[in-house]
Amino acid sequence: MIKLLKYDWKRNSNSIFAATVIFILAQTILTVVGEIKDWVPLTTYIVSIVLYVFAGFLAFLMVCQTYNANLKAYSRRLLPLPSLYTVASPILLLLASMAFLLVLFLLHEFAFVTWLGLDETILSPIREQLELKLTLSFLIGFVWLTVSATVFVFFCITFARTFEGKIGTWLGILMFIGLAAVLGWLDELVHSNSSSGNVPFGITGFSMADTPSGDGLTVTVTGIQGISIISFLIEIATCVTLLFGIRYMMNRKIKL
Question: Could you give the residue ranges of the DSSP H alpha helices within the chain?
Answer without folding.
Answer: 2-36, 41-72, 74-77, 85-116, 132-161, 166-190, 229-248
